[in-house]
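Why do we care about 3D structure at all? Because function follows from shape, and shape follows, mostly, from sequence. That is the central idea of this module. The next example makes it concrete: a single protein chain, its amino acid sequence, and then its structure expressed as tokens.
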Amino acid sequence: MKPLGSTPFEHALALAWYDDRLTATEFRQLDALQSSLKLTDGERAKIEADYEARLVEGNAPRGSEANSLAKWIDAVRA
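And the structure:
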């Protein structure tokens, strides 16, 4: 899989936004990943703000399939 971000969490964000929306399930999955990566709320907020700015600019990478976020999180947590 081609990296979609400079950090595992940024990559996960790109996978979550594959369909231009973030569901409640995806948000909970990102919470679990944040915990696994031991990211502080501040670190997560910065990664999300940077990614969202790129979304607005139209140059944020995105995943290509629905189940890729869950697969990525499973791989990172393994």
